[in-house]
Design goal:
By secondary structure, the chain is mainly beta. It has one domain. The chain is 9% helix and 55% strand. Strands 1-7-8-9-10-11-12-15-16-17 form a ten-stranded antiparallel beta barrel. Strands 3-5-6-13-14 form a five-stranded antiparallel beta sheet, with no helix packed on it. Strand 8 and strand 9 form a beta hairpin. The longest helix is centred in the N-terminal third of the chain and has 21 residues. The N terminus is likely disordered.
Amino acid sequence: MKKYFVIVLLSIFSTNYAQFEDIFASDSDAEKFVTKYTQPVFRGLMFATNSAWVTSAQPIKPFHFELNIGASGAFVPQNYESFKFNPADYQYLRIDNGPDEIPTVMGGDSQTRLKIVIPDNASNEIKLLEFDAPGGIKDQLPVNAVPAPAIQVSMGLPLGSEVNLRYAPTLTSDNGGFFQLLGIGVKHSISQYFPVGEDENGNDKKRHFNLAAHVAYQNINAGYDDQNSNKAVHLNISTISLQGIASFDYKLLSLYGSVGYTKGFTTMDVLGTYNYSYDVQDTNGNHIRTETVSITDPLKLNYDVNGMKAKAGFKLKLAFFQIFADYTIQEFPVATAGIGFKF
């Protein structure tokens, strides 16, 4: 799962990143195109990383601990695998040849060739740059989903509460990619305010049905720094999760479900200096000269998600060892599985 995650995340900062550098030469058109091209991977990351916070409404006993190691995958809807190129949306970017349906980063191979046409009305000249549209990484993946591994430590608190901490140290790749995660969540029991009654011996009955509320915040820093130049891509993702949880908890098994809300914010900055060579032509298509242009820090992009979510899952409990899995219905459905340890 870790290898799969690195392939998906770092592909847009390293190998596939080089494919759409030429887009930056299209001035303001670049932000529109790159936003559409990269949107599914960032939306998927926000949904995937904001999952798997809880596996029961029952809080951990005060000052006891639970360690969960899980992996989530946000499945990319088919309509996010490509986008239609509408010439009216762009000032300089055009299709040279090929279909106007262009793959996103989570799509397949591209069959489209693009061109940038910048007219100079004063001298009746045009600047022309041609290149292949970037392709996607769908064929490199076992399933078309954006993955997100997570390690979470939880501690029980007094008053029927629990705190969750997520942390991933900075992961780096040989080509300059990096990733770091930090998140915190709090769960509070609602069912504790409803008495369960007493048995025939005067002892409190065992509670099997539990209700709780949970809130969480998470931040991710990731990106790519070219070790041989000043080029870089820096990504920051912040997410918020609010949910109500219900669970049936028995000695060996917990069945849980939740209904909640997800909110996410993402920024991506493309930094550095990029040089481009234009073929300058007259209005009849005759070559006049080659002109080189430099562009610095070409992109600052913003993405956001918000919406309701509903989840169902189970947890198998074997002494101190646990196995859990669940599925969340939302814009990008998320499947989660993992193991846990209680101590």
